[in-house]
Amino acid sequence: MKSVIVTSGEPAGIGPDIALALAHTAFDAGVVVAGDIHLLRRRAAQLGVAVSLDDAGGAPRRHAGDGRLAVRHVALKAPATDGRLDSRNAEYVLEMIDGAVDGCLAGRYSALATCPVSKAAVIRAGADFSGHTEYLAARAGAHGVMLLEAGKLRVALATTHLPLAAVAGALTRERLETTLSVVHADLQKRFRIAAPRLAVCGLNPHAGEMGCLGREEEAVIAPAIKRMKKAGMHLRGPLPADTAFTPEALRRCDVVVAMYHDQGLPVVKHAGFGEAVNITLGLPFVRTSVDHGTALELAGSGRASASSLAAAVRRAVQLCDD
Q1: pLDDT tens, 31-64?
Q2: For 132-168, how does the pLDDT look when each residue is reduced to its tens digit (9 = 90+)?
Q3: 149 lies in the same domain as 57
Q4: C-beta separation of 30 from 320 below 8 A
Q5: How many domains does the chain have?
Q6: Nearest CA to 4 among 96, 112, 101, 103?
Q7: pTM over 0.70
Q8: Do residue 132 and residue 29 come from a single domain?
Q9: What residues make up the domain containing 17?
């Protein structure tokens, strides 16, 4: 039986709410939710969600959508208040993630699906943390690549959670070549696309306009593409990002590789916000996540949609090795 561990994320946000909603969605897999079982029970009562929570000690159970939810209990470090971040619970958030990663690496779980966390709360607690993608990659000793998927649209990122001013300096030929290799390999392995077609964006307006609007295309991106083409990959670029997402351009590729976070992700979220899935490529296990943040203002209100989390769990099951 395939199995998915779901981390319930920032305790002051909507993570517990949407994790509870999974109790009424069936999956062709075993599912276990990591989090404080007392917080989950309190939030369920507050939301009026009919759910039976069982401390399963981390063991997943066939998930029938019958209102039962297996829980891997992780104790809060401080009381959680809806909508109010408390950095004392940063340790709790990381403990959930670490336990899930350990379980995946040990083969106890086939995949990990994550609810959103507050980067600010974890960083303010003193942890070296810029996001799930980077943290999971470091834990697994891998080069992680963020990819968001909305229907047939897929966008991968060469850099992830960096200030815009730091992107050009972080974009090296070695990094881009490794990213392209990871994307190509996982599209073959996980997505079962025999000969992936990658469209690679430039960094600057008009892909640098022949060096007049920036030289990263000539110095970094084009040479990386040339080398990867020699390795047998099907690549196009560097492409101007403002035309890389036209319907005709998208018909000619299986994934668009954007150079930075806000170059590519607004397009995906416009195409399918609430249904899009965040997938980390390059890991030795499947990891998916929601396409939204902690939504502190919605915590405990009953107005948070669990559609993206349900899509993430469903996609995790599909991407697992048969």
Answers
A1: 999 999 999 999 999 999 999 999 988 888 889 9
A2: 999 999 999 999 999 999 999 999 999 999 999 999 9
A3: no
A4: no
A5: 2
A6: 112
A7: yes
A8: yes
A9: 1-141+284-322
